[in-house]
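STRUCTURE:
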């Protein structure tokens, strides 16, 4: 029996637009999945949808099925209060509401942490001592595992690298101003490096507000200005990797999220990073998430299994 063999388990990945439920066998092979829209109107509707998805998993695999949840936002470890900008449950007592909805509390993890946890257990960061999972999508955030286990967090935050400031030296290098961020501040890394930031960089360089896939297609066709825009993006993203390396010192960084699906993105970032690091800083290995979009829900299921085995999660 390998260390990954275990019990059948299920996960929920809750984002701003959909709640995905996925069932896995004991070897973490996916068996079935179902997506429903995320209710945006009220906490009651939200927890009803969660209960429906958990009920679907239990109908397939039994009432005792271990289930874990990955979601955008966080649950404060001390109070159990949910904090999230994209779900209608901010301020709700998560364990109490889940118990009310599905009969028992379920372990909950931030979705960036779930990416790192999934990839550090059977994925692209298997065996890494310090594994970072970096989501480059509509937002930018990271998770962190030590020897395959989620790193303890005081306030429940993931690695909020997206809302750290973009270094002034990087903005000066590219002649960029302080761009506003969804968090209400300006100059955050996310404002430049997330999907909307790519389009804004393209616009800044006179290409129009091209979304990342179209920009990548234009670069692939040999358009020098599109290639230049992606190089600027990679240079700014490398500043985020530099902050991660200087603070967390991971041996592996796994890339997830929509932008990670641009062709050659790991190679592009690996090429940009050395020039941004302080001399003598070790380079992490950059890899794409092995489980792609499903890594978060896989991490949630692993968390459910870990909790069922008696771990304190
Ligand atoms: Zn911000």
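SEQUENCE:
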């Amino acid at each position: 029996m390998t260390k990954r063999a275990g019990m059948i388990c299920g996960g929920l990945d809750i984002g701003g637009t959909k709640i995905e439920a996925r069932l896995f066998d004991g070897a973490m092979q996916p068996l079935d999945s179902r997506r429903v829209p995320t209710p945006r109107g009220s906490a009651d509707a939200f927890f009803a949808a969660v209960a429906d998805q958990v009920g679907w998993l239990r109908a397939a695999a039994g009432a005792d099925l271990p289930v874990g949840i990955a979601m955008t936002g966080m649950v404060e470890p001390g109070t159990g209060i949910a904090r999230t900008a994209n779900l209608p449950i901010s301020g709700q007592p998560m364990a109490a509401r889940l118990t009310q909805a599905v009969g028992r509390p379920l372990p909950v993890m931030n979705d960036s942490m779930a990416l790192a946890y999934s990839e550090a257990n059977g994925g692209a960061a298997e065996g890494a001592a310090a594994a970072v999972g970096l989501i480059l999508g509509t937002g930018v955030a990271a998770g962190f595992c030590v020897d395959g286990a989620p790193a303890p967090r005081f306030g429940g935050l993931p690695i909020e690298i997206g809302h750290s400031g973009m270094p002034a030296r990087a903005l000066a290098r590219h002649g960029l101003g302080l761009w506003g961020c969804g968090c209400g501040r300006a100059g955050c890394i996310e404002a430049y490096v997330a999907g909307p930031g790519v389009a804004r960089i393209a616009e800044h360089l006179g290409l129009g507000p091209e979304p990342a896939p179209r920009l990548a297609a234009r670069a692939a066709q040999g358009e020098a200005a599109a290639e230049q825009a992606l190089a600027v993006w990679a240079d700014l993203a490398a500043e985020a990797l530099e902050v991660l390396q200087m603070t967390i010192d991971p041996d592996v960084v796994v890339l997830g999220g929509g932008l990670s699906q641009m062709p050659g993105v790991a190679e592009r970032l690996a090429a940009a990073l050395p020039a941004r690091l302080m001399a003598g800083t070790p380079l992490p290995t950059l890899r794409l998430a092995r489980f792609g979009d499903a890594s978060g829900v896989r991490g949630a299921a692993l968390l459910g299994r870990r909790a069922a085995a008696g771990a304190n999660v």
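REMARK: Residues 224-247 form the longest helix (24 residues).
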